[in-house]
């Protein structure tokens, strides 16, 4: 039946999501399984968001507000911008698709980095758009190498900041030089899915570029810091002139009623964000210390996950850890064959993941 399928679709290597807990329990007959494979929030969901959803459950027989009026208004207040600066998405994944569909002509191309968030390439491929990738430098986006790939046909650049799966970031100095050197016909997307966890002083204030009319689009999500990954809610922030065109591409009811209500409440849940940051930053230090004590290499991260150099085939390490009920992510699909990515969990989960990693690496050495 493949003769019916578009060639570019046949070429796609499907995105492999983190293995679900229930599936793992079923397949391996395990009772206690922890998932540290999809960079979810260790505290669960924002309690204010949960409360808001309960209140509007009975309203789900109606279509959602296609414009997301109240959520956009709340976001505008939060950022000191206008509602016209926002596009809501079914997760920021959907916004990647909307951005590509809105701005990239069939003969134009997209530039990003190797071992960047995989959806840029996959969604570009679905849309029949070409992607060029620059090599990473010390596991970081190399903005100089990206500039070298840019030509007349480049329309869009995706910068995951911080990058998933490396956890590294580009600094405000690097970004400033980069934007100054960039030709005027190119839009830059800063994907800031992990902004909640930033603990460095030289992280770029991408909103300041937007305010200065630079051609930037910022992507944010409620999946990580707000703990709402299962609801699917993200947003793009951009110049209203760009937003109005993205709105033409967006499907009318892409963000459901519960997600809109939860997003509104989650933005006000500062206590939850504070607690999330605290547990992630503390957990990160604990894992760093454990890895260092074991002599295992890792890439310092500003996100809620850590790229770990397992020093051997990552699929084997993934499978071995799975047998002990710990789901991590092997990094083969990112071309990092000896690396696993570990999400920072609760203290109990972190202790268990470190114990299991130690056991697994010792067994095989
Ligand atoms: C860098 C990056 N961007 C975007 C996303 C998509 O997030 P969502 O679609 O859940 O908003 C992810 C998810 O892991 C991510 O790591």
What structural class do helix, strand and pairing data support?
alpha/beta
Shape: globular
| Low-confidence parts | none
CATH class wording of the largest domain? Alpha Beta
Helix content percent band? 40-55%
How much of the sequence lies in strands comes to: 15-25%
CATH topology of the largest domain: Aspartate Aminotransferase, domain 2
- The number of helical runs is 14
Largest sheet, in brief, is:
7 strands, mixed
Order of helices and strands: HHEHHEHEHEHEHEHEEHHHEEHEEEH
Radius of gyration, whole Å: 21 Å
Summed over residues and divided by their number, the pLDDT gives a mean of 96
As for the number of domains, it is 2
Question: How would you describe what is shown here?
Answer:
- By secondary structure, the protein is of the alpha/beta class.
- The chain has 2 domains: 137 residues, Aspartate Aminotransferase, domain 1 (Alpha-Beta Complex), CATH 3.90.1150.10; 223 residues, 3-Layer(aba) Sandwich (Aspartate Aminotransferase, domain 2).
- Helices cover 41% and strands 15% of the residues.
- The protein has 14 helices and 13 strands.
- The strands form 3 sheets. Strands 2-8-7-6-5-3-4 form a 7-stranded mixed beta sheet, sandwiched between helices.
- A hairpin with a 5-residue loop joins strand 9 and strand 10.
- Helix 4 runs parallel beside helix 11, helix 5 crosses helix 10 and helix 12 packs parallel to helix 14.
- The protein starts with 6 loop residues before the first helix and ends with a helix.
- The site of pyridoxal-5'-phosphate has 13 residues, from helix 5.
